[in-house]
Amino acid sequence: MAKKKGKPGSKKDNLWAEAKKRCRLNNEDIRIAKELGLNPRSLIKNIPSKSEQWKLPVKDWLYEIQRKRNEKAARKKRNTEYEINSSIHSGINSDQIPKSRMSSLTKKIRKSTNGKKTKIQF
Predict the structure, then answer these.
(1) Of all helices (H) and strands (E), which one includes residue 19?
(2) Percentage of residues in the chain having pLDDT higher than 90
(3) What is the mean pLDDT of residues 87-113?
C-alpha cells in the first residue's frame, strides 16, 4: 500500500518546520526523530527552559535516544547469536527443545540470515 503524502503546505509539514526552527535541528536530525517515532510536538515540548538546565538540548536528546536503541539492538543480536551458536554446538537435538522455543529460535535464525531459508541442524 502506498504511503499517503500530504500537500507541501500541510499542517504536519508546518509542525515539522516549526520544530526544526525552534529546536535548531537540521534535516538529518528530523530524519532521526521520524525514525524514532517522535512527533514535532514532543520535540517542541522537550526544549529545555532556563530552569531546566539538567535537560539536554533536543538535538543531543535525539542522539542519546538513538544511541540507546542501537546499543539495545546490538545487545539483543549478540545474545541471539550466542544462543543459536550454543544450541548448535552443544549437540542438542531438536527433540529436546520445546516447540515454543524452537519456533522463536527458527525465527531469529531466519532474521539473522536476512529471511533466506536455511537448513537448521541441531
Answers:
(1) helix 11-22
(2) 42
(3) 61
Q: What SS3 state is found at 100?
A: helix
pLDDT digits (tens, 9 = 90+) for 18-45: 999 999 999 999 999 999 999 999 999 9
Distance CA(90)–CA(86), nearest Å, equals 6
- Phi first, then psi: give them for residue 66, nearest 5 degrees: -65, -40
Where exactly are the structural domains of the chain? 12-90, 92-122
Residue 79 vs residues 4, 75, 82, 110: alpha-carbon distances, Å: 38, 6, 5, 15
Encoded amino acid at 67, one letter: R
The half-sphere exposure of 101 on its side-chain side, counting CA atoms within 13 A, is 12
**Cα→Cα distances 77→73, 82, 94, Å:** 6, 9, 22
